[in-house]
Design goal:
By secondary structure, this protein is of the alpha/beta class. The chain is built from eight helices and eight strands, in the order βααββαβαβαβαααββ. The relative contact order is 0.14.
Length: 219
Amino acid sequence: KTVIVVDCENADIYKLFSCLQGLNDEELEKVEKIILYDDYHTTVAWEHLNKYVKLQVERIQVERVLDRKSLVDIMMTAGVCRHYFENKVDSFILISSDSDFWGLISSLPEANFLVMYEYEKCSGAIKEALNEKGIYYCAIDDFCTANIDKFKKLVLFSILEKYLPDIAYINGKDLLNKIYCEARIMASETEKKAFFDKHIKTIQLKCDKEGNFSFEIKK
């Protein structure tokens, strides 16, 4: 039994989405589900992953006791241990570039782990430690082949819709930058201008038969 475990604080959702989209049905059948360990400081894009992947997605929103201290690492460690001992899951694909996951791996020497990291975020020291213990690892960047524009737009629209009630009091250019920042999407000025011209400048005020006003986004 294999599950994908994601440290949402230390993983790029768009790279993960692209990787999953590139897998065929036979490969996906080997995975029981995806478990997301998320924190409210991450992007809202994690809320939409289940709409576009064929696998079962379980998202665990980890609450904080102290605002400055995340508990994602400890909750993920406890969750993996529980699935190993109680649910007899023996293989985990761990999506994270954080060295803290080494404590989890070393605590379950009998379990099978495959670690997927990002080139720019993972240190050489953790790779050496994985090599010494014979733990397989690879860069998720090497598997990002699928087109993700549709998924990115879904995330951008969901954030834009959140600001519609206050749209009349917000500067359009400031709103554009805020949306891309919250979505954690890196885009060129040309791409952002295209989104602004097509979807923000064209927002319309609508009035239904009962006289209720609403905003409409051109999609």
